[in-house]
């Protein structure tokens, strides 16, 4: 797939089996509540970004998620031993810009 949003402004939804060449989110026809198209600068501020990277192996799962909401950002990392029961798993969550120790 060459672009995520096609030439008519419609995004390709669903399971995408091939790599996307360009995530052209600014080509999406985003409009205000009165259906007036938004400018490119407003679109850049309106779109939120979410990134996720996951690793799956025989004995563990790990995931890193980063969300950018323009005013605030948050990061989440999870590493689990898949041989342990669900109730015994622990997670750590830390927001950017705060002081938080992962060691207690």
Question: Would you give an account of this structure?
Answer:
This protein is mostly beta strands. The chain has 2 domains: 1-47, no CATH class; 48-104. The protein is built from 1 helix and 4 strands; from the N terminus they run αββββ. The chain has a 4-stranded antiparallel beta sheet, with no helix packed on it. The radius of gyration is 19 Å and the shape is elongated.
Give a short summary of the structure:
With 104 residues, this protein is mainly β. Helix content is 7%, strand content 29%.
The ordered H/E elements are HEEEE
Individual helix count: 1
Q: Identify the overall geometry.
A: elongated
Largest sheet: 4 strands, antiparallel
How much of the sequence lies in strands comes to: 25-35%
Low-confidence stretches: 97-104
Q: State the end-to-end CA separation.
A: 47 Å
Features:
single chain; disordered C terminus; mainly beta
Topology:
Layout (H helix, E strand, L loop, with lengths): L39 H7 L2 E8 L3 E9 L4 E9 L10 E4 L9
Antiparallel strand pairs: 1-2, 2-3, 3-4
């Amino acid at each position: 797939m060459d672009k995520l949003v096609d030439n008519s402004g419609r995004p390709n939804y669903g399971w995408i089996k091939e790599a996307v060449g360009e995530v052209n989110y600014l080509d999406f026809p985003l409009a205000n509540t009165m259906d007036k198209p938004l400018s490119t600068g407003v679109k850049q501020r309106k779109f939120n970004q979410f990134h996720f990277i996951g690793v799956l192996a025989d004995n563990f799962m790990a995931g890193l998620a980063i969300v950018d909401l323009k005013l605030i950002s948050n990061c989440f990392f999870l590493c689990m031993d898949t041989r342990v029961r669900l109730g015994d798993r622990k997670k750590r969550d830390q927001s950017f810009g705060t002081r938080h120790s992962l060691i207690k």
